[in-house]
Amino acid sequence: MRTPDDVLAVLRSLRAADPPTHGGRVLSYVYDHGRPELDELVREAAIAFLPVNGLDPTTFTSVAILERDLVAFSREVLRGGSDVVGSVTSGGTESCLLAVKSARDIWRGGHGGAGRRATLVMPTTAHPAFRKAAHYLDLTLVEVPVEAGTGVVDAERLLRAVDDVTTGGAPPALVVVSAPSYPFGVLDPVAEVAAGAASRGVPVHVDACIGGWLLPWWPGETPAWDFAVSGVTSISTDLHKYGYAPKGASVVLYRGRERHRAQYFATADWPGYPVVNPTVLGSRSATALAAAWAVVQVLGPSGYAELVERTASATQRVREVVGEIRGLCVFGHPAAGLLAVVADHGVAPQDRVDPFVLVDRARELGWLLQGQPALTQSDGTVLPRTAHLTLTAVTADVVEELGAALVAAADAARGLPAPAPDRSLIASVAEHGLPTELAGVMSTLEALDTRLVPDLLIQLLAAVIDPDVA
Ligand SMILES: Cc1ncc(COP(=O)(O)O)c(C=O)c1O
Asked: Considering the domain boundaries, does residue 368 fall inside one?
């Protein structure tokens, strides 16, 4: 038997081997406000709610109050009126999944019952949570290529895809656009798409999982993308991203109570308690809900405005630095704190900086960027290989260090192509885990037929937690 002290020591040492979640050096996955007192608040709030079961807000009435407050605050931020309602979920994927479920069930109600297969139309850049939703909920997915130079979908083209689906049968159950998209941080033409979709009677979901707590306070003019746009019927917005809550909290909102109700599952067809679940889980922790509520209460609109202002100034500075690096540029026109950097093909190959090599060189310097493989879209156009940076409020504290690291990493990477694809690397990863230099693995994955990649990824990741694999 281990003592609690021993067990805690093990947990601490495991955590020490993780990348730093604070300090701005991990430029994806984590969102750091840079304010230690908020971390303390989150800890206390989570501990207070640790034993609570969020399954039943009529028993644990605290849960209902926290959720109601968060829904009310979010809808105000997203300029929704009293016809906008929704739920707190466990994260972006669940919010997106539920928005699709609601749209599918309403579509089935109006278009021929449970047997028919609904369609979801979205740009190539929409988050894979929607692929997952289509897969889980049995929808046909129609993907529309985005402009290869900007990463933005053309509204007319998206609407033509809607018309194509409609011509073949019933209209799509849902159109999805992003505010902004994760890979490139660019904003889709929400107002144009929503107006066109509304005139065709098709609902529009705006995936603001990443931008929903950022864009409302972003300085300068951002084209309208929220509930102020009349054709927008649902929005997902993650508290555990730029809402600066710990992982496990997101909000999905709907225009119209019917849409929200269609997200629920309820049954009395068993001999136990009557079941009514708004979200995917049954029993669920209320820790993230309580922590998110606490963060929102303390920050309020002015706190978010301040954090966004810091994020925006850091982003501006990083864009300037990247703009001055020979062989590298920012891809497209990012709307907020997410940047994708791409090799500058306007310079000679010996001056170019390959994003995958940049990621490896930056990692050596202690900064974690995220490599994003090139993608050939269904029309043959190619979205480039990029390196992704998610910048947060804490970036403002380290922006000059980050800039210097990017310059140094680019200097070390300049003129070096990423290793050529090599299938044997995949077998080696399966046997020995990921190498420290990832460029070769990334270029190999990029070169594979995208239909083959999922199985490989599943094998690799399942092995990581398989007790019988070293
Ligand atoms: C635009 C967008 N949508 C959905 C998601 C999925 O969110 P989660 O990872 O919380 O499930 C993400 C995650 O990065 C995202 O950026």
From this structure: no
Instruction: Give the range of the structural domain holding residue 188, as residue numbers without chain letter.
Output: 43-296
Which residues on neighbouring strands pair with residue 174, listed in sequence order? 120
Distance of CA 337 to the CA centre of its chain: 13
- The total number of structural domains in the chain stands at 2
Cα of 179 to ligand 1 centre, how many Å?
A: 11
91 CA closest ligand 1 atom index: 10
The b/e string for 296-305 (b: 16+ C-beta within 10 A; e otherwise) is beebeeebbe
- The number of beta carbons lying within 10 Å of the beta carbon of residue 22 is 13
Where a domain ends, among 257, 275, 296?
296
Q: For 437-456, how does the pLDDT look when each residue is reduced to its tens digit (9 = 90+)? A: 999 999 999 999 999 999 98
pTM: 0.97
Could you report the per-residue pLDDT of 328-371, keeping only the tens digit for each? 999 999 999 999 999 999 999 999 999 999 999 999 999 999 99
Whether residue 147 has pLDDT greater than 80: yes
Model confidence at 169: pLDDT above 90: no
- Strand ranges (E), 210-348: 232-237, 250-255, 265-267, 275-277, 328-330, 338-343
Is residue 369 in some structural domain?
no
Which of 260, 290, 240 has the alpha carbon at shortest distance from 86?
A: 260
Ligand 1 proximity of 303 Cβ (cutoff 6 Å): no
Q: Which of 296, 314, 343 is the last residue in one of the domains?
A: 296
Closest residue by Cα to residue 211 from 59, 31, 367? 31
- Rounded to the nearest whole angstrom, what is the distance from the C-alpha of residue 134 to the centroid of ligand 1? 16
Answer whether residue 446 is part of any domain.
Answer: yes
At CA 93, angle to CA 184 and CA 283, rounded to 5? 160
- Distance (Å) from CA 92 to ligand 1 centroid: 5
**Helix segments in 80-211, DSSP class H:** 92-110, 129-137, 155-168, 190-199
Q: CB–CB of 414/351 below 8 Å? A: yes
Phi, psi (degrees; rounded to nearest 5) at 143: -105, 135
Give strand pairing partners of 254. Answer: 85, 234
For 220-235, how does the pLDDT look when each residue is reduced to its tens digit (9 = 90+)? 999 999 999 999 999 9
Q: From CA 117, how far away is CA 424, in angstroms rounded?
A: 41
Q: What is the 210 CA–ligand 1 centroid distance (Å)? A: 6
Domain-embedded: residue 217: yes
DSSP state string for 422-466: -HHHHHHHHHH---S--HHHHHHHHHS-TTTHHHHHHHHHHHHT-
In this predicted structure, the answer to whether residue 405 has a pLDDT above a threshold of 70 is yes
Confidence of residue 470 (pLDDT cuts 50, 70, 90): low
Probe residue for ligand 1, chosen from 94, 177, 206, 238 as the CB with the greatest number of ligand atoms within 8 Å:
238
